[in-house]
């Protein structure tokens, strides 16, 4: 049976010859009038969109979220409205610091981004596999990421920059301790938890709000990878995690996570022992126990990696009614930065791509821009307010009012205890886990060029727990500074 599909240009015209370019005679130079050749070459030159500045290497899958607990008293979000309700979703897992071709099994946090295609629009929960982060104010984010990238002179990763920044940013200690622990290298993407990390606000039908934190608990169990095996796989099988996720779903072994939340009454934010909006801190589960919300299942692989995984765009600013932002300074910066990165990387109309397009109807007055591939609003009215029955706002979708007070200025968080929670985490570890933690830190810090940076960081470890700092100092052949 012959193939009846005809080869065409991007504008649908049939291609007469796809093997030979047009030339001036058999040996003559190529003609610029060969528009099919020019189109092929020009498109090929543009096949790679700029990779993400962070989270460049990733894997993704489709699935669904099913509500298992009625939490309508806390949020009016429609996709969480009743037990048994299912919402389609897409998840992208990623490493943070490496480039698009980097290895999966490096020691790095993992991005854990979930796009819920709800009937009220897309809701993106853009977190990590850790409940905290290295910094707590978005103004420090470009500097932090610069330390994770390549040195501008050598074009090599620079441990001196990494530890110099961390040692001068003590709020990073909690996340550094997690990163350098066994959980710094998950065995697979299926065997790790996910977190919203930030504090968010839930609002119910009566306009009453609560603060909330998200926890995705893997049903596969936590499994981590030995550093030696991770290094071996990084060289021999750099796409190990990507392949594992694809094969598991392809074979019907669908990974799943239970979603839980911690709920804090609005008024308790002012009196809690930690600032609840500081993303370098966790809320004690003894103070705010986990409450089950639902179950996430990944059951379908992408058909095309570029179209679905690479072009997927997530923003923590993509909210739906019933879910709002908090004063978390890191979150506040991300509300702008993520969508702005997508406008640069994919284009102003990135939300029209099939992987990003909401299932809900979209009506607005945005027009034009690169890659506008729908009817661009047609002949409909293109401004608001108008007298021609164009889309109108819904006051019920407004953000709930919240109190703002004080003088404008540059402020730090109220609490500067960066050591208690890191020390508590260290003391929760077994002796073997502490040994591996210290060994991982020592190996990572050995290349640091300046001894003063090592000593500064050792002080932080020691303040978290004297044994913690002493172990690292001993491994580096140093002594704990006297002025800790």
From TrEMBL:
PANTHER family: CATALASE (PTHR11465). Residues 8-392 form the Catalase core domain. The gene is katA. Residues 8-25 have a biased composition (Polar residues). This is Catalase. It catalyses: 2 H2O2 = O2 + 2 H2O. It comes from Bacillus lumedeiriae. Belongs to the catalase family. Keywords: Heme, Hydrogen peroxide, Iron, Metal-binding, Oxidoreductase, Peroxidase. Gene3D superfamilies: Catalase core domain. It holds the Pfam family Catalase. Residues 1-27 are annotated as: Disordered. The keyword Repeat does not apply.
